Amino acid sequence: MAQVSQLPCDGDGICMRCRSKPSESQTLLCKTCGTPWHLSCLSAPPEIPLSDIPIAEIHWECPDCSPIPADDSAPPPPPAVISDAAGSSSDLIAAIRAIEADESLNPTEKARRRQELLSGTAAPPSDGDKSKKMKEKVVGGDDDGGDVFALLDGSFNCSFCMQLPDRPVTTPCGHNFCLKCFQKWVNQGKNTCAKCRSLIPAKMASQPRINSSLVAAIRMAKLSKMNSSGSTPKVYHFMHNQSRPDKAFTTERAKKAGKANACSGKIFVTVPPDHFGPILAENDPARNQGVLVGECWEDRMECRQWGAHLPHVAGIAGQSDYGAQSVALSGGYEDDEDHGEWFLYTGSGGRDLSGNKRTNKAQSFDQKFDKMNEALRVSCKKGFPVRVVRSHKEKRSSYAPETGVRYDGVYRIEKCWRKVGMQVFYLVLTIWLLCSIII
């Protein structure tokens, strides 16, 4: 049997080889990492003693944790299986493991190489070097049970809160800080690194960018620790919508006016309505891939089913005291401008919508910082990531899709203010910049 055929069960207990959920009598738990394996799908299943001992209590090591055989003819154990939620992060984690296992490097050199790797200035090792380093790690007898948190030691911690950084920002000198901590530091007028006093460029101080590689590494560390401990995966949110159809449908009456009064269909993702940022694979039990940048839907109803933008009609999703989670670019106001990586977006309100005049695009009063507009201002002040979807209804933009609705990733609101628009009334205008954490 091929080496890659040995795969464990995923987080839901489904065998990754036969795609079925084994019974308790057919499930083996590794005593080292706690990963469940389907007994019938193992290339060399262990001998089960005929006794009253439950199969779950048998001391057995999976192929990922068992030592490398001394016989060269015997096939080595398969590499550790990393879930689809990791994506391209598996290479990054393996590269960090290789650096930690290199005994020829001193701690300073290891820290320097880790920083180069996470900042994108160093390439991960080749597959041959990666396999060699991983084998040396296994032979050396790693006692941490595959805990990836051991790879993220104190050198990665934020110097202010002394924790693994939340939305990490990496300075040119190689030190990491939480985005919130970094912004608080530079807003005090300090233009040097808090750890080594190196000069921080003015552009970075005004527009810090999140280190997406370190975000992926920290996320992988948390997932690995949760899986190795055998704990139940965290349930983020659950939508009680089993009675709804899989696909949104429209009545004959609704077809005349769009889909405003149609059935919205099931919500397939497990994120709450106030979820900021991208929708990851762990929140997508239906496909186990998350909502990817560039994903298209037929209309706003179908876009709602995947949580990218929940309102059917409104262009802003958010709460005035909490922040905005997503916006839809659909050409609602004349002052809107779309330049791809940045765009100028007009807030909501300023029109008389009484009596079904929803096609009236003439401004009749000023927009104010309340309701959804206030939610945009909160997200601007706090630097929250906001999901952006573009609709084919925006005819003036070269970046709008030809049909349907498209998810275009995570943006950040750079500036938010009021000014007189083209129709002589005050508008709430916001400038949006593309974030570096597009997922």
From TrEMBL:
Domain PHD-type: 12-68
A cellular component annotation (GO) from this entry: nucleus
Any one of the GO BP annotations: protein ubiquitination
Residues annotated as domain RING-type: 158-197
Catalyzed reactions per annotation: S-ubiquitinyl-[E2 ubiquitin-conjugating enzyme]-L-cysteine + [acceptor protein]-L-lysine = [E2 ubiquitin-conjugating enzyme]-L-cysteine + N(6)-ubiquitinyl-[acceptor protein]-L-lysine
Compartment list: Nucleus
Region (Disordered) location: 104-139
Biased composition (Basic and acidic residues): 127-139
Keyword list, A-Z: Chromatin regulator, DNA-binding, Metal-binding, Nucleus, Transferase, Ubl conjugation pathway, Zinc, Zinc-finger
SUPFAM superfamilies according to UniProt: FYVE/PHD zinc finger, PUA domain-like, RING/U-box
Residue ranges constituting the YDG domain according to the UniProt record: 286-435
Domain of life: Eukaryota
Keyword flag Transferase: yes
Main location: nucleus
GO MF entries: DNA binding; ubiquitin protein ligase activity; zinc ion binding
InterPro entries: PUA-like_sf, RING-HC_ORTHRUS_rpt1, SRA-YDG_sf, SRA_YDG, UHRF1/2-like, Zinc_finger_PHD-type_CS, Znf_C3HC4_RING-type, Znf_FYVE_PHD
Pathway(s) this gene product operates in, as recorded in its UniProt entry: Protein modification; protein ubiquitination
Keyword Manganese: no
EC numbers for this chain: 2.3.2.27
CDD domains the UniProt entry points to: RING-HC_ORTHRUS_rpt1 (cd23138)
Name of the protein described by the UniProt record: RING-type E3 ubiquitin transferase
Organism annotation: Stephania japonica
